[in-house]
């Protein structure tokens, strides 16, 4: 369909969790472009399509990013508090996620492709300089689902914002764009699976904040 | 799959465009909850799942919202400039979109369901009060794709922000949540179809800003 393989929508939606352990195997360029095309089918503010997908796969660029990513992880994210949590609660889902993020921080340069999803900043006076965030995340979700159909794992991170000026200078990202999201992409080492989520009835209210949907409705 | 109908992923991705002309026919509650469950499979910052889906279908609430939505449309969005554009360029894709948005502004109360997608605000000092926007839009994209599979049309709007205090007071949305997105949902009057988008090669750079992918790569 549309030059893509057949893949069930809900299989994609229910199994596209963050895959942070990726094999270094390269991804064919034609697959990458098909995935980006799928991303661009997403809606955006007045259909402005204010996105740029900046693909990085050269070893030098990946190493440059990987060094800084690891540094930012150690310095800003992997706090003493988080280390303690990991020691004391190693069997929790949070600890599992944290170990996966530690892996990414130490191996992000091994991912065959790093995608920087950039989005235009507003220019009108009330929001000047603010990135059009709502016009990039739907495309990213499409990208991750499409990658899933090709057997490719993705993760969404914004830790690169701690060293975004260095990145933007090296890659030439102009100031009118925000380098908003970093997506490592590659064939996963791990298995696909349904992510841990609260029940839908826990995050749904009907007509008024706090009013839960009728329980019967969840059985349907 | 996962209690949902079978539907092709790429068919969903390539035909889920904004559907602003909706029939008033009600949508079964069990379908709504399945769509919200699909939405919640989306990633979020540290898997916080900071979303609340506030469902509005009572005639009184819909009328309350519709009156204000139309007012906000006239007052803030449908400017003299846009009216002039519509008169002078009626055959453009932009004019087509604008007419569809005019329809929505005048008929939003007829949609059988209005979903307010709310998201928590950050509480840490550097970002205090800012909504976790990146943790709601991926879920919204899942929601729109899942709705498509059930034959349900959606559109994403944030025009309600012009009267969000009134809405939040009426529906009880607490200040620690941002009432970020309004999604009218219903069976569409129009037809599904591939939306107008720039070619993927126009929005992709390789290794450096401005460096287009090799043309061959797009043929693959």
What is the secondary structure topology, with strand pairs?
Two copies of one chain form a homodimer.
Chain A: H1 9-15, H2 29-39, E1 51-56, H3 59-77, H4 80-88, H5 93-107, E2 113-120, H6 137-149, E3 153-154, H7 164-171, E4 177-186, E5 204-206, H8 216-219
Antiparallel strand pairs in A: 1-2, 2-4, 3-4
Helix pairs in contact in A: 1-6, 2-6, 3-5
Q: Provide the domain count of chain A.
A: 1
| Helix/strand order of chain A | HHEHHHEHEHEEH
Class by alpha and beta content of chain A = alpha+beta
Radius of gyration of chain A: 19 Å
Shape of chain A: globular
| Largest interface: pair, residues per side | A-B, 84 and 85 residues
Looking at this structure, what is the CATH superfamily of chain A? NADH Oxidase
Largest sheet of chain A, if any? 4 strands, antiparallel
User: What percent strand of chain A?
Assistant: 5-15%
What's the end-to-end separation of chain A, in Å?
Answer: 30 Å
Q: Please tell me the overall pLDDT of chain A.
A: 95
């Amino acid at each position: 369909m549309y030059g893509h393989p057949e893949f069930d929508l809900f299989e994609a939606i229910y199994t596209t969790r963050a895959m942070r352990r990726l094999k270094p195997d390269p991804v064919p360029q034609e697959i990458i472009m098909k995935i980006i095309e799928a991303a661009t089918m997403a809606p955006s503010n007045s259909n402005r399509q204010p996105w740029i997908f900046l693909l990085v796969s050269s070893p030098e660029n990946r190493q440059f990013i990987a060094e800084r990513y690891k540094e930012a992880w150690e310095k800003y994210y992997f706090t003493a508090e988080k280390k303690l949590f990991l020691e004391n609660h190693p069997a929790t889902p949070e600890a599992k996620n944290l170990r996966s993020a530690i892996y990414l921080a130490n191996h992000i340069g091994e991912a065959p492709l790093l995608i920087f999803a950039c989005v235009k900043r507003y220019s009108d006076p009330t929001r000047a300089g603010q990135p059009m965030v709502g016009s990039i995340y739907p495309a990213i979700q499409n990208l991750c689902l499409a990658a899933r159909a090709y057997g490719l794992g993705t993760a969404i991170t914004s830790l690169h914002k701690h060293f975004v000026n260095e990145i933007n200078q090296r890659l030439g990202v102009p100031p009118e764009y925000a380098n908003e999201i970093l997506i490592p992409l590659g064939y996963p080492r791990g298995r696909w699976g349904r992510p841990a989520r609260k029940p839908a009835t826990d995050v749904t209210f009907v007509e008024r904040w706090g009013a839960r949907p009728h329980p019967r409705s969840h059985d349907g």
